[in-house]
Amino acid sequence: MESLDPRVNRLNLSTTELTSKAPLDQLGTYEVFSQLKEDKPYFHVGPVHAPNCEMAFLFAKEQFSRRQTCTGLFVVETRNIKVSVFTEGEDTVYNYISNPGELANGNTESFELFHLKKRGKQHEYIGTIEASSAEVALSMVKSEFINDKPVYNIWIIKTSDIESSQDEDKIIWDTLPDKKFRDAIAYKAADKIKEFKERQ
Amino acid sequence: MYGGGNTFEHIKSNGLENEDPEKLAQFEARIERGEKIEPNDWMPQLYRKQLIRMIEQHAHSEIIGALPEGTWITRAPGFKRKLALMAKVQDEVGHAQLLYSAAETLGKSREQMIDDLINGKSKYSNIFNYPAFTWADSCFISWLVDAGAIVNQLANARGSYGPYCRALDRICAEESFHLKYGHHCVIHMATGTEKQREMMQAAINRWWPPMMHFFGPSDKISVHSEILMRWKVKMGSNDDMRNQFLDMYVPKIWELGFTIPDENLRKNEVTGRWEYTEPDWEEFKRVINGDGPCNKERLAVRRTAEERGRWVREALLAPKTEYVAPLA
Amino acid sequence: MTNTEALKELIYKMADDQLILGHRNSEWTGFGPLLEEDIAFSSMAQDKVGQSYALYQILNDLGEGDPDTVAFMRNADQFHNSQLVELPNGEYDFSLVRHFLFDTAEAIRFQMLTNCSHEPLAQLANKIKGELRYHTMHADIWIKQLGRATEESVSKLQDSLDRLIPYAIGVFEPSPMEDQIIEDKIFEGEGKLRQQWEEAILVVKSKTPLNLPYFSLVKPV
């Protein structure tokens, strides 16, 4: 069959009948977080599929930061995110977090904490905590980061599980503001319509 | 880009009698309050199933929707149009990625969904089975098909499922670029030479019938599902969406001096609704069932892309990672 | 004073290479091996076309025609590009290896051009550093990944490398006005670029079992 698209004609289209494409080659899942400006918190933007953190970062950069501004991006494997229960209304999730008893027992490492402050919105970065486990970290949050507003869900991630953009790599977003062709603002045409109507 | 022509499974028995009545009541109350349902929340099986179906069809429509306009990537006139069209078609692929991800949170893997697309099990928006003969066709698609999609997507963004709504918020923001870019292209054609005006008018004539089909069968003949409306899965009737589109865009087409190939098309000032010749629903059915001008090519392209990319994906399979459903 | 003809010759070559490769790479939009890569590869094709646009604008300021006319209305024999960038896309390994070979050279070329005596070119070189950083990051990670994954992926990459290396070296064909270009401090020259490119290619290659020919024995195309 001859396509109108020269690209398709160069593809050597498969002429086989409709069949399944076994085996299923589904890659791992990573969650992506981005920061729009230096003083803004990181927030969750969505997932990508990739074989490792390095490639997840490559993919995330163009899928989630090819417009507007970006000052930082990181990825973490989905299964490395610990998720709390969900609550609703005035019920904060911290009502369900118990004190694990023993707080510091020797070795600690750092954990990154994310809150869901409104159902339907994205998880947002709150702070970093040094603790001996995710559970201990959670119990410590209670006193450090909580105000009166309810929190509906918590994500907690070991800092070492994160692949993050480095300061020297931030130039990869340098030309974003110049890519006007990706924005509605570059296509103003009201004057042309007005002029056209006047000519009629 | 997506229309309301999605095919919901005919709900014979809704299976609700097997659901826990207390949980069901809480679930419905949450939706009633205008709160979002998140992946970890309890939900009825029917809700999960119909959402997967709808989001999956939407995702397929994006990935297939990249093809008609992609026809003109290599021949877009000049740097500005070329860059914009590349970015626009790229966005469609990006939208597919976002939507597949939202559907994955409900428990179906992306590979399974793509498999169901290329083995013919699941559908995508009918309009992409039509060819883009000239540059003017690609202008029509960028402006008006995307305009139609925005009408639907803005409605769906007020739906009840959190991950789908978030994907749509992102998508709608990008669609505003598509819409403005497309309009800009059409205005350029409209204010250009006689030849350019003729090309544009011919494209409008070609695309009008599929554009009317885009919102799905008339409410008179389509399967109503009150329960999907109540659960905020389906956010508006096909006719309402079509009417909203006509109301917003017919005047904009007319103001450029173009005609629309339907002599019965007019707004009834009393009812506030648009009147038009009933679209040919037999053709709609024929095309959606595989007999359109480009169905074979579209699926063959997708299948070829999958086959040619298979060794790449196999080389990326890593024992240290594991597929899991995305979190949100 | 800069020799404008020599400067224009260099910019034409660079702009034509980028335009044509950007055009070739854009053919993958919608057909990529996985969705995320489809998006990434398309962005880089857009960068390439955008960079060529900027170069044609510099040419325009030097008295050449309007960028759209120059880029899209010339005849085939008026182009200054290397053959590497014209070759049809083939399979993904071919496009990826070409992207790796070309963009590695490109990144070094623009790095060198940050010292260019023609200020607008030096400015452009500084401005697009970040884009090129992403391109080489992308290329290196992919070559490392596929270059040591499965038997099939390694052999595909090797075949494409074998086929493309002579064309890639063809990119470094000296300009007829090379001496002038170097003397006027426009650019340090294709020879120096090629040397640095060979080193950079070897660094990435060393992380895989892939083989490269002795560059000095390769006959450029």
Structure description:
Chain A has 200 residues and is of the alpha+beta class. Helices cover 19% and strands 25% of the residues of chain A. Among the domains of chain A are: 26-79, Phenylacetic acid degradation B (Ubiquitin-like (UB roll)); 84-161, Phenylacetic acid degradation B (Ubiquitin-like (UB roll)), CATH 3.10.20. In chain A, strands 2-1-3-8 form a 4-stranded antiparallel sheet, with helices on one face. Chain A has a 4-stranded antiparallel sheet with strand order 4-7-5-6, covered by helices on one side. The longest helix of chain A is centred in the N-terminal third of the chain and has 12 residues, at 53-64. Chain A starts with 5 loop residues before the first helix and ends with a helix. The mean pLDDT of chain A is 90. By secondary structure, chain B is mostly helical. Chain B has one domain: Ferritin, core subunit, four-helix bundle (Ferritin, Up-down Bundle). Chain B is built from 11 helices and 2 strands; from the N terminus they run αααααααααββαα. A two-stranded antiparallel ribbon of chain B has the order 1-2. In chain B, helix 2 packs antiparallel against helix 3 (79-104) and helix 5 (135-156) runs parallel beside helix 7. The longest helix of chain B is centred in the middle third of the chain and has 29 residues, at 162-190. By secondary structure, chain C is mainly α. Chain C has a single domain (4-210), classed as Up-down Bundle (Ferritin). Chain C has 9 helices and no strands. In chain C, helix 1 (4-26) packs antiparallel against helix 2 (35-61). Chain C is globular. Chain C starts with a helix and ends in a 16-residue tail after the last helix. Classes of the chains: A alpha+beta (200), B mainly alpha (328), C mainly alpha (221).
